[in-house]
């Protein structure tokens, strides 16, 4: 397929992909200690299933999925559990979170791996197996895949199953490399998705600056009917909505889901892990991480989850001069880290040791000159400048009315803003504030109900007591203690 | 101990049921403006405004007896919201009634608690659980931070503690980048 349907806006960014894409994927070294977070996905934190002192095997479940939107967590290698406690994790807050710390024994001893015959399984059993294997979206959003593989209630069958290999973020090349080296296994994963979702069409979107990946995927898809679709190199083509528009010309309604228009979108690396989980019985215990920027040998590493960022940096020959900041994710959508002893999670697609040059966004901020450049590039068709004014003035209702929540935080507006206004920071702030107030409101409403229920209970008890007193002879004063002001009385003794 | 656990869980379950029931059964129809004001108040039920609870304060505002700047837990955001609703000018919080502070919750030192039930009787939202002569505990999730349980405790074993920020409650802050003079 050569035709595509351009989305509104977007920007041409610097690429910086070749720095890390020249070497094949390197296996990660086995560290002596792994710190595995229990919350590596959207949804409820996994429930720990191990205690300090326990011995675990590679692939053994150590955290159980807690509810429908959740995913299990597994031991990335064999060893002994040291602790189940709060440890530093890669998060913009710098706050710790619940983790299982594993002392590795160097034997890398697997549990018994049981491949599944997915064609014979009931779809809901298959989805449970996928949740228990910890499969989540590896593009960075880490949404549990089992949830996305359930269409019930949204549509009968999919029109388009989209595989996202666009990888539009600068510096990143982990999806490029996995498509080049593991195309056949990605396709095996797509077969499983097709089996469950039964789409009319399977489209694999890849930005046209990755000719090797396109060739490898084309070869692997031969005879399957799956279409590899090169798309122009324009950020953010890898946004789910933008890629959907590019490939199908369809746009989900505001506040709607992609399944409303018969589309579901998965990252190519997710398809790979799905294949490993189902056809080999191997849960998600590693992922490919691009380590790039100011390091001696930028490359992609197949790293065990729980490996410290610092270990991966060391494997790449250490930091070069001029590192200003460590970023998880790309320069457009990533966030700065407070420290480098945090562990790789399922969301860690890229570790970027950025120098001042890559941090162009942090130039002196000038007032908005209402040039409208941000409006031209916004792929969500928003009015970023307007949203900025509202967020700045804390006029949250107006920001919401102007579709703040349709903002995908792609950073195109900040990227082009001649006044270097950190626009996305304002949107994140406003979104968080709105969520927090919403939650406060809910809590207040609950407190109001509890208060009312209490008042009514006290009133009822008082009446019941009075009724009883009227029936019986009044007790002597010594027997009854009345607690002043509460209407509660108790029998003494 | 088993008995205590059993009693507590039974209590928790029962109060949940009761709440659901009460919400439906005892729905009070009232002045729509009072309802609207009440919906904006923080529902701490702390009485700092000088009224026995948020609803009484809402009624007093409508009756013209109370001003809109008497609720410390609601703080400045609350006053602005009330001003907007009532078409008045916002004014700063009246310091006579207290100061706005970050939310805290009550924590009972379970070693010292003598199980006297006085705090249970003081809590306006039934957020304290415990049977007579057994140690009591505060359900942190339900505690509004009103501090009404502190005074009645005969052994002073209740403390207010700030709610620690966690990864799930953490928020992006207002951008600090200063605008340079153009
Ligand atoms: S690009 Fe920047 S200066 Fe131009 S209108 Fe948008 S916010 Fe204002
Ligand atoms: S960050 Fe939000 S407002 Fe800015 S261009 Fe992207 S979608 Fe539009
Ligand atoms: S001061 Fe306390 S009781 Fe009065 S309205 Fe505010 S939260 Fe409610």
Automatic annotation (TrEMBL), chain A:
Residues 447-478 are annotated as: Disordered. Its EC number is 7.-.-.-. It comes from the Bacteria. [4Fe-4S] cluster 2 binds at residues 378, 407, 410, 413. GO terms for cellular component: plasma membrane. It is found in: Cell inner membrane. Its cofactor is [4Fe-4S] cluster. GO terms for biological process: electron transport chain. The keyword Metal-binding applies. Residues 455-469 have a biased composition (Basic and acidic residues). Its main location: membrane. SUPFAM superfamilies: alpha-helical ferredoxin, Nqo1 FMN-binding domain-like. InterPro entries: 4Fe4S_Fe-S-bd (IPR017896), 4Fe4S_Fe_S_CS (IPR017900), Ion_transpt_RnfC/RsxC (IPR010208), Nuo51_FMN-bd (IPR011538), Nuo51_FMN-bd_sf (IPR037225), RnfC_N (IPR026902), Soluble_ligand-bd (IPR019554). Gene3D superfamilies: 3.10.20.600, 3.30.70.20, NADH-ubiquinone oxidoreductase 51kDa subunit. It is an enzyme of class 7 (translocase). It is a peripheral membrane protein. Pfam families: Complex1_51K, Fer4_7, RnfC_N, SLBB. [4Fe-4S] cluster 1 binds at residues 368, 371, 374, 417. Residues 357-388, 398-427 form the 4Fe-4S ferredoxin-type domain. The keyword Membrane applies. Keywords: 4Fe-4S, Cell inner membrane, Cell membrane, Electron transport, Iron, Iron-sulfur, Membrane, Metal-binding, Repeat, Translocase, Transport. Binds 2 [4Fe-4S] clusters per subunit. NCBIfam families: PRK05035.1, rnfC. Belongs to the 4Fe4S bacterial-type ferredoxin family. RnfC subfamily. The complex is composed of six subunits: RnfA, RnfB, RnfC, RnfD, RnfE and RnfG. This is Ion-translocating oxidoreductase complex subunit C.
From TrEMBL, chain B:
PROSITE patterns: 4FE4S, 4FE4S_FER_1, 4FE4S_FER_2. Keywords: 4Fe-4S, Cell inner membrane, Cell membrane, Electron transport, Iron, Iron-sulfur, Membrane, Metal-binding, Repeat, Translocase, Transport. GO terms for cellular component: plasma membrane. Residues 1-23 are annotated as: Hydrophobic. Pfam families: Fer4_21, FeS. [4Fe-4S] cluster 2 binds at residues 113, 116, 119, 153. [4Fe-4S] cluster 1 binds at residues 46, 49, 54, 71. The keyword Acyltransferase does not apply. Residues 104-133, 134-163 form the 4Fe-4S ferredoxin-type domain. Part of a membrane-bound complex that couples electron transfer with translocation of ions across the membrane. This is Ion-translocating oxidoreductase complex subunit B.
């Amino acid at each position: 397929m050569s035709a595509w349907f351009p989305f509104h806006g977007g920007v041409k960014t610097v690429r910086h992909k070749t720095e890390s894409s020249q070497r094949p994927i390197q296996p990660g070294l086995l560290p002596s200690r792994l710190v595995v977070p229990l919350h590596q996905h959207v949804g409820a934190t996994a429930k720990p299933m191990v205690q300090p002192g326990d011995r675990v095997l590679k692939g053994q479940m150590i955290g159980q999925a807690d509810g429908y939107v959740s995913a299990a967590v597994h031991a990335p290698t064999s060893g002994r559990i040291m602790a189940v406690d709060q440890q530093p994790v890669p998060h913009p807050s710098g706050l710790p979170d619940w983790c299982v710390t594993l002392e590795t024994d160097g034997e890398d001893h697997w549990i018994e791996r049981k491949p599944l015959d997915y064609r014979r399984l009931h779809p809901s059993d298959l989805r449970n197996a996928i949740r228990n294997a910890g499969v989540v979206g590896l593009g960075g959003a880490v949404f549990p895949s089992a949830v996305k593989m359930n269409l019930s209630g949204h549509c009968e069958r999919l029109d388009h199953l989209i595989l996202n290999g666009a990888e539009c973020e600068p510096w990143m090349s982990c999806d490029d490399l996995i498509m080049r080296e593991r195309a056949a296994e990605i396709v095996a994963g797509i077969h499983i998705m097709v089996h469950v979702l039964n789409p009319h069409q399977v489209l694999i979107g890849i930005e046209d600056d990755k000719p090797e990946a396109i060739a490898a995927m084309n070869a692997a898809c031969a005879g399957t009917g799956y279409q590899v679709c090169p798309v122009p190199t324009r950020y953010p083509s890898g946004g789910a909505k933008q890629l959907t528009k590019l490939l199908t010309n369809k746009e989900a309604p505001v506040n709607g889901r992609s399944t409303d228009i018969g589309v579901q979108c998965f990252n190519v690396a997710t398809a790979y892990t799905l294949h490993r989980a189902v056809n080999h019985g191997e849960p998600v215990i590693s992922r490919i991480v691009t380590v790039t920027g100011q390091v001696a040998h930028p490359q992609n590493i197949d790293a065990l989850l729980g490996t410290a960022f610092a270990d991966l940096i060391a494997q790449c020959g250490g930091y070069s001069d001029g590192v200003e900041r460590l970023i998880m994710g790309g320069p457009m959508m990533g966030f700065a880290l407070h420290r480098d002893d945090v562990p790789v999670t399922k969301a860690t697609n890229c570790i970027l040791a950025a120098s001042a040059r890559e941090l162009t966004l942090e130039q002196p901020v000038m007032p908005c000159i209402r040039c409208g450049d941000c409006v031209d590039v916004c792929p969500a068709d928003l009015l970023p400048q307007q949203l900025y004014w509202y967020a700045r003035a804390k006029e949250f209702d107006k920001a919401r009315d102007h579709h703040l929540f349709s903002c995908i935080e792609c950073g195109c507006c900040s990227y082009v803003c001649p006044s270097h206004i950190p626009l996305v920071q304002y949107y994140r702030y406003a979104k968080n504030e709105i969520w927090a107030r919403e939650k406060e409101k809910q809590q207040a409403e609950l407190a109001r109900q509890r208060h009312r229920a209490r008042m009514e209970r006290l009133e009822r008890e008082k009446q019941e007591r009075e009724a009883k007193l009227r029936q019986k002879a009044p007790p002597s004063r010594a027997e009854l203690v009345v607690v002043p002001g509460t209407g509660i009385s108790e029998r003494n003794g | 101990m088993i008995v205590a656990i059993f009693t507590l869980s039974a209590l928790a379950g029962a109060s949940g049921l009761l709440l659901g029931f009460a919400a439906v059964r005892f729905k009070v129809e009232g002045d729509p403006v009072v309802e609207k004001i009440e919906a904006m108040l923080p529902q701490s039920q702390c009485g700092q405004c000088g009224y026995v609870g948020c609803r009484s304060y809402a009624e007093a505002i409508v009756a013209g007896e109370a001003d809109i700047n008497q609720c410390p837990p609601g703080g400045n955001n609350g006053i602005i919201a009330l001003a907007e609703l009532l078409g008045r000018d916002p004014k700063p919080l009246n310091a006579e009634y207290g100061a706005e502070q970050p939310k805290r919750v009550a924590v009972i030192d379970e070693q010292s608690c003598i199980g006297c039930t006085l705090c249970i009787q003081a809590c306006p939202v039934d957020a304290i659980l415990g049977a007579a002569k057994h140690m009591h505990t505060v359900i942190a999730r339900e505690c509004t931070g009103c501090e009404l349980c502190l005074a009645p405790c005969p052994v002073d074993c209740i403390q207010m503690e700030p709610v620690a920020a966690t990864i799930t409650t953490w928020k992006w802050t207002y951008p600090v980048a200063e605008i340079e003079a153009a």
